[in-house]
Amino acid sequence: MEDTTDLQDEPFEGTTRETLLDVVQERLQKTGKSKLITRLIYVARFIRKEQSVDAHKTFHSRIIEKHQDGEVTGFLLCYPWCMIHLIEARTSSLMSILRDTLNSGQQNHGMVEARVIASTEDIPSRCFEGWHAAFVSSGSHASQMDPVDSTTIVKDATEVNTFMRKIGPSLLGLSEIELKRKLYALESFFDDVPAPELVLALVPAEDAPTLDEYLDIFDVPLSIDLDSEQVW
């Protein structure tokens, strides 16, 4: 009989462990779908107070342009001390955008902490036709808040999610001048813009994953704990 001892002790050559994203995409391909579009929303707190959207718009637009082959759309909403970012893109491109954002370093992305409050894979349609950014000035002096209660985080995150998704259709068909006017005075057109205190309270909520944790879930090779690999 052939001795298989060495084969059992060594990993198979040429094999790599899949990420959860790989598994999901493989299953979708079997259903006939050639690409997977994901919509993700994350909230973040800034390292310093901002007076406009300019710096963050420039930073994020550069990363998005780098991955525009992934058909990126979305909306960046900034406040003086925090932001909400909705991104729609091919899932693989979205993961690259998040990773590039984090790898740029805190002095470049300007975020103390960021958490994903909504993620939907294989969305049937997009909310946005392009990528936009806006700034909402606030009379609030709060630069951070205690985390939202675990019993209300779903309701609070849904409130933000619903508002951000509503913005997209309202921008359709506008001329360039009309679009700029609406983005410049967002609060004049919508009376349900999420309060900055709500956004700041969602940022430290441990029930939602940080960007790092989200990437570890979807974009890191799966670690399968096999009994044969245990040392007892």
Please provide a brief summary of the model.
The chain is α+β, with helices and mostly antiparallel strands and 232 residues long.
How would the blueprint of this fold be written?
Blueprint: H1 5-9, H2 20-30, E1 37-46, H3 54-66, E2 73-78, E3 82-90, H4 91-103, H5 106-109, E4 111-121, E5 131-135, H6 153-170, H7 176-184, H8 186-189, H9 196-202, H10 211-218
Parallel strand pairs: 2-5
Antiparallel strand pairs: 1-3, 1-4, 2-3
Helix pairs in contact: 4-10
What is the spatial order of strands in the main beta sheet? 4-1-3-2-5
The secondary structure category is alpha+beta
Q: How many distinct beta strands?
A: 5
Count up the helices: 10
Contiguous uncertain segments of 5+ residues: 1-15, 222-232
How would the global form be characterised? globular
For the sheet with most strands, the description reads: 5 strands, mixed
Helix fraction by DSSP (H/I, runs of at least 4)? 25-40%
**Average pLDDT across residues?**
86
What is the end-to-end distance? 29 Å
User: Beta-strand level of the residues, as a percent range?
Assistant: 15-25%
Radius of gyration over all CA atoms, rounded: 21 Å
In N-to-C order, the SSE pattern is: HHEHEEHHEEHHHHH
List keywords for this structure.
232 residues; 5-stranded mixed beta sheet; alpha+beta; 5 strands; 10 helices; single chain; disordered C terminus
Q: Can you offer a commentary on this structure?
A:
The chain has helices spanning 5-9, 20-30, 54-66, 91-103, 106-109, 153-170, 176-184, 186-189, 196-202, 211-218; strands at residues 37-46, 73-78, 82-90, 111-121, 131-135. By secondary structure, it is of the alpha+beta class. Strands 4-1-3-2-5 form a 5-stranded mixed sheet, sandwiched between helices.
